[in-house]
Every structure is written in C-alpha cells, then in structure tokens.
Amino acid sequence: MEILWFLIALGLLFGVLGPYLLRRRHDGIKVVAPGAPDAADPEAYGFVRQEAQDVRLPGADDDLLDVLDVVQATQDWRAAAQLLAGTDKAGEVRWQRVQAFAGAASLELRDRPGVGGAWLRAWRAEAPKDPGAAAVHAEFLVQQAWRSSSAGTDDFRIILEEARKVCAEAALLAPGDPVPYIVELAVARGLGYPHEQFDQLWAKVIDRAPEHMGAHLAALHYWCEKWHGSREEADHFATTAAARAPRGSLLAALPLFAVHEHVPDVVLVQDFFRTAVVSKALDGALYAVHSARHDDPMLAHVRHLLVWFLVRAERWAEAMHQLVRVDGHVGAVPWTLSGDPAEMYTLFRNLAVAGYEANGGSPATLPR
C-alpha cells in the first residue's frame, strides 16, 4: 500500500512539473546532465544554496533574527520584550515579529517536549502586564493548536479556546494594538465563528489598521471554500479590498492570494496559469509590487507568491526579477505549505533559471 501511495504521489508531481522538465520545443527547457556546458547554474546569479536558505522569515529582519538568537541561546526573554515594545503597534512588522517569536517557542517545544520555549513561559510569568508577551502567548497557542492537533478535535478546540482568552487579555493590555484581534482571526477560523461574529471581529481589526496586509491574508483564509466561505466569497473579499486600496498598498495583490487558495490539487485545464483569471490577478500583484514602498515588510510575501505563479505560467524573466529580491529567505507561502520549504523554493528557482536561459537570458542580462 505504501508503494502504491508513493507511485500516486510521484505521478501527481510529474503531472505538475513534467511539462517544464521534459519540454522539447526549440525555445523551451531541455534536461541535461549536471555540469554539462548547457546546464543552468543558479549560483551564477548569486543565489544562496538550498541548505543555506532561511526558512524562518519571508525577508530580512536583522533586528529580529539577532534578538531570536540571543533569546534562544540565553533563554532570557528581555530582549524580545524590548524589541516588541519599540515596534510600531499598527504596522506589519509587529505582527510578523509576534508570529516569529511564537513560532520559535512552538518549534522549541516540539523539539524538546516539556522544556522548549521556557523563555516564553518565564516572560508571561514575570511580566504578566506586558502586552507583547500576551500577544506572543496567544499566537503561540494558535500555532500549537494547528501544529499538534487535528482541526475539529477536542484538543484542538481546547487550545484555541485558551488562545481566545489570551487574545482578549492582550487586547485589554494594549487597546490600540490590532495584533490580538489579528491572532483571533485564526482562532475564528479554527473554531468556526458564524459569519456575523467574524464580521464583528473583523471590524475591530480594520478600525485599528484598515490597510494591514497580514490581517487581510488571515481573514481571507476564513472566507475560502475549504473553511467557512466559498470561492465567490473569497474572491469578493479580495477584490473589494484591492479596489479600495490606495496607491502603494500591497492589498492590490490580495486577489492573487485568493486564486492560490483555490488552485486545484491537480490542474487539469491546459494553460490554467495563463487563463484570464490568473493573468488578471498576476497583473494586479505585479502592479502592487512595482508601486509599493521598497521597505514594505509585506513585499517579500507577495514576491514569493509571484515566483510560484510566474514559473508555472512560464514567465521566466519576470520570475527571475522577483527571485533576485527574495532569495535567501523562504519562510513564506507557498513554500511553507511544503514539508521542506527550502527544497520546494529551490526547485522553482531552478526551473526559473533554466527557463530564463533557454530563452536567451543570462546573469549579465538580468537587471538587479
């Protein structure tokens, strides 16, 4: 039976990637042996090797990574508290840092049951009024629920009910902070809030941070077909947010995330990634990226998803333009949906390089 499942999985993978790997058109990709004169070499573009890709973050945040190293090495929470206290409440960075601290503690606990993540427990015990600690604790519980339990089980619901209580506590400690309510969006999805209750929660988020991209991505999950909405409701949510977004906002890329949420496991439609629906969403995301601030903390998230779509649409040069700006950090959708984010990212990156060079591109012709 295990062999049968392996063959089925292998067949599905070949069905998705086979057209790229075995193309024999004069302008397509040809398979050659590694080291052959015609072999594409990703390292010629300055790309980081697969094993050196950082899977913790979608893009660089040196302050966060430095603090994480200190906290995990010393098990002292004070550097984390200081960093969060100095991070803008309404911005995207605070939300990303809360997620990163919570994820680090959760993974520590997974690797060292009963011992890992002790710094977070100490933080909560020694600084019970610290809003940063409460927010990280709430997000930690959410990640624990999804990581350690199956959706819908008693354990899953118990952990999320506790997360909801901690979200409420964090909100009281920091009235203007949208993060506790953004954390609760994942709780709402897991516990299956009715639409009216979810709308009330969403109103609290947008009252505090109306253009928060991370919040919109969290809400989009709720409205997707596999959770508590439908393809139409998710598309309506995404397109409405994109239409209302001011110039320079990455919310214009939200429809591409909605399309990604509803891509079938096995694409049977020929040229699906060149259809009008996908092309329109891609154009919106590319527009968002080109008009966004260069230091927008959510920019890397959009670029990573663009790589996934552009490679599958065989738009090699456009994919390469995104890759040179995100390579080195792969902690983003769609790679994190894989068991090995670095491996999946590197596969798509290699396909982009091969396609780019098969159509006349080279390191010298790629703008930086």
Write a structural description.
By secondary structure, the protein is mainly α. The protein has helices at residues 2-21, 62-74, 78-85, 92-111, 118-126, 131-148, 154-173, 179-191, 195-208, 213-223, 231-244, 254-261, 276-291, 299-312, 316-326, 341-358. Helix 4 (92-111) packs across helix 6 (131-148), helix 6 (131-148) runs antiparallel to helix 7 (154-173) and helix 6 (131-148) packs parallel to helix 8.
Topology:
Blueprint: H1 2-21, H2 62-74, H3 78-85, H4 92-111, H5 118-126, H6 131-148, H7 154-173, H8 179-191, H9 195-208, H10 213-223, H11 231-244, H12 254-261, H13 276-291, H14 299-312, H15 316-326, H16 341-358
Helix pairs in contact: 2-3, 4-6, 5-6, 6-7, 6-8, 7-8, 8-9, 8-10, 10-11, 10-12, 11-12, 12-13, 13-14, 14-15, 15-16
Largest sheet: none
**Quaternary organisation:** single chain
Mean pLDDT: 89
Q: From the alpha-carbon coordinates, what is the Rg to the nearest angstrom?
A: 21 Å
- Proportion of beta-strand residues: under 5%
Ranges where pLDDT stays below 50 over 5 or more residues in a row are 1-27
Based on Cα principal axes, name the global outline.
globular
Helix and strand element order: HHHHHHHHHHHHHHHH
- Assign the structural class, choosing from mainly alpha, mainly beta, alpha/beta, alpha+beta, or little secondary structure: mainly alpha
What is the terminal-to-terminal distance?
A: 49 Å
H/I helix tally: 16
**What's the count of strands?**
0
- Considering DSSP H and I runs of 4 or more, what fraction of the residues is helical? 55-70%
